[in-house]
Structures are given as structure tokens and as C-alpha cells.
């Protein structure tokens, strides 16, 4: 990390107080959109958030309702310029504000880096709100995450290495917890960071069976650079965000809830231990929506036309290579923590079961009216080939139209989006499809959502032909 402790840390701008919100104020837009990944992540949530934020206009607010800096949501402009959104909502390039809810974990170091990347792209000072109760990642969480993952060797969990899960674990102990609202007092923050470094970190590394640290690692921890770099980043973070609570969304022009990761990585339903410590579905949204006084929600569940997983863990119907030669992914590049992007056939029954497990549990929560829509992305990457997918335990080949109809019928949705490119201009509303779901659409299966088959390994078999 670049040394910048020479920067003055005095005259730090205090965080702006909560915007004044009257709980009885009239709700400007009682209907909102939710974008949720239905797989292992990387389903095109950035594209779909950008699309729906554009429909709402510049007064829209994109709400990050789970996860943290490990998100990598790509938005491509019509002129080809692109940005990978980590902290900032995927409506940022449109001018939409971002709200980092209390369920979002902020990383000041990575927030500052992304803010500067946006500035170099011509996007200056996008408006960001943050709930003061949100947890904060420190550089020590990142180091624990990376060193523990390296120590696991071939049994690694597939982490992104940005310290998200370690932040959750640390903050379970109030002595070491750091929240957005606590970043204002630099002296208190410095004391808390020293306690994390000297007491929490050694105990946590021992618990995770991380062996003896190298001389370089020890020197890094003994240096004050990490701490002071973080304090400087926290100051910039504080100067850039405005504190707010969920209720301020009552007066937003339009609200788009942007999920991170996917339902198959949910901490309660995914295949442990290769999961995220986050609720990736509707659970957090229904709480936030009730607080914001929202009444109607349209939930868009996203999937690629095939399945991917970037990281270790069970992947049903895994393939030895790309299912279609034209597949290109500039976001999910190989890295030491997640290795290379992996591919599999899309299983419509698993897709339907996954979505149903989330939707049926929360669709009627808090008196909300929630409708269900399916979005199928990356259709352009089929390269003109007929789509292949698993249905009823068999590999099926069909036309694109038949594939979309089969997916919509399996899931049982009120709407269908087909995405044939990386920009919002390539998102089309499919008007003619069978939306009624047959009672026998989910058959008895060996692969049950949330329960890993006893015989499952890294792959459940490479499918090579029909």
C-alpha cells in the first residue's frame, strides 16, 4: 500500500448529520425495484441496476442492501467506457445517488480508490449516503482474510480477499467493532485500530490455524503505515458521504435495491463453507422497504444464459471449458484468491427452486406487495449457437425463444427481460411468454437447494454432449 502518512490529518470535515425526514411525509414513489442474483454471483446485476435506474431518472437512489467491497458490478456505457462498481451503486454513471445501508460493509481504503477511478472517468463527486450503523472493514481484516485463505491451500473458500467476512466476525465483539458513525473521532479510531492489531489479529490468526508469519508480514504489521493510511482514507470517506437512515428513501424519486453476490452464496442457503456472510436475497430488503414506507416491490432475479462461479466450491454440471467459444468476461479475471472463472450448464430446475426458496419466504412480509421477474443476461455470448441447458435432469438444446419461455415457465414469473449485450440498450422486455408455472415444473432432484449431495465433489460431472 502506498505510504501517505505525510498527509495532514487535521481539519477533518465532520460527517453531515442525518437528513431531516418526517416519518409522516408523503412517499414520492411507493413502487421500487430489487435486483438479485439467482446464482453464484456475476449474473449481470450491474447491467440490470443501471437499466432500472435509467427508468427512474437522475433522482433515483440505488440502495446497497448487502455485502461490501467484494462486489464487482460492471456497467458499460454506449460509447464503450466501463466501470466496475464496488461501493458506488450501479446507477452512478447516470447521476443516481447511492445509499450504503446498515447491512452494507464499507471499506474506506477501497472506497477512496474507486472514487478516484470514477473521477478519472469524468464522474466527479457522485452523491453517497451511508447509514451510521454500517460496519467498517480495516486493513487488518483484509490481511487476515488473505493470509488465512493462502494457508488453506487447495481447501480455500474462494474468498475475494477484501476482508468482508472477517469484518463481520470481528464486529461480533463490541470491543473491536468499528462502524461508519465511529469514524469521526480520529483519536478513538486510532486506539481501536491498535487494539485490533495487537489483540484481535493475533488471536484470530491462531484460531484460523495460520502458521508463523514471515519476516515481511511481521514488518508490515509492526509498521504504522497501514494504520495511518487507513485513517487518511477514513477522513476522505467521511468527507464524501452524508449520514442518513433508511427513512430518507421516502422522499427519493425512485429506489433501486442492488444486491451483491447470488442466492447460491447466501449464508443461510448456500453450500457451506463456500458462502458469503451475507443475506443475498429478499431478507434485508423487506426490512429496509418497511422502514422506508415502500409498498410495492418488483423483484428481478438475474441469471446468465449459462452458469458461472468465480471461486472454490460446488458447481453443478461443471464443464471443463467455456460452454460457448464467444464468452468473454473482462471483469472476472484470474486472481490468487478465486483462480479462474468456472463454467457450467444452467439448470432450470435448480434456478426455479433457488428463486422459490427466497421469494416464497419473504413475498408477503411486512404487508408488502412483491412481484417476480426473471432476467436472462449474456445471450449475445452464445455466439449464434442454440442454447443448451438442464431441465428435468436432462441436457436440452433449443432455440433462444424456447429457452427463454422454458426458463420463465420453470420459475413462474410476472415479467421477463432478455439481455443481449453489456449495455442497458440491449435489455429487452419479452412480451409473449407463458407465465403460468406448471405444478410439475420442479421435479424430484438429487441437487436440492441448500443441501449439498453427500457424493458431491468439485464437479457433479462434465457434460460433453447431448
Walk me through this protein's architecture:
The chain is an alpha/beta fold. The protein has a domain at 139-241: Adenylosuccinate Synthetase, subunit A, domain 2 (Orthogonal Bundle). Helix content is 28%, strand content 17%. A ten-stranded mixed sheet has the order 7-6-5-2-8-1-9-13-16-17, sandwiched between helices. The chain has a three-stranded mixed sheet with strand order 12-14-15. The longest helix has 22 residues, at 186-207. The termini are far apart.
Quick structural gist:
The chain has helices at residues 45-56, 108-120, 139-152, 164-170, 186-207, 215-222, 225-240, 282-292, 348-362, 400-411, and strands spanning 31-37, 60-64, 73-76, 82-85, 97-100, 128-130, 241-243, 254-262, 296-304, 307-309, 342-344, 346-347, 369-377, 388-391, 394-397, 415-419, 427-429.
Which secondary structure elements does this structure contain, and how are they paired or packed?
Blueprint: E1 31-37, H1 45-56, E2 60-64, E3 73-76, E4 82-85, E5 97-100, H2 108-120, E6 128-130, H3 139-152, H4 164-170, H5 186-207, H6 215-222, H7 225-240, E7 241-243, E8 254-262, H8 282-292, E9 296-304, E10 307-309, E11 342-344, E12 346-347, H9 348-362, E13 369-377, E14 388-391, E15 394-397, H10 400-411, E16 415-419, E17 427-429
Parallel strand pairs: 1-8, 1-9, 2-5, 2-8, 5-6, 6-7, 9-13, 12-14, 13-16
Antiparallel strand pairs: 3-4, 10-11, 14-15, 16-17
Helix pairs in contact: 2-7, 3-4, 3-5, 9-10
